[in-house]
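Revision sheet: structure tokens.
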Amino acid sequence: MTIEATLTSKGQTTIPKEIRDSLRMKAGDRMTFTLMPDATVVLRLKNKSLTELAGTLYKKGRKTVSLDQLSR
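Predicted:
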């Protein structure tokens, strides 16, 4: 998905609605910007809690760890 946006004189821009909707972004979400050597900018959302990420790293045959065990 490629969508254009404009930079204001204050260095601000709006993340296009299509992108916000696809990423389920909401007001107050945190993000990071990483400048890559080839001038690509990577935007990463920082709004996911540990419970929202539960199961995303699951691999068949691996032992699971509870949140209580992780907090020790």
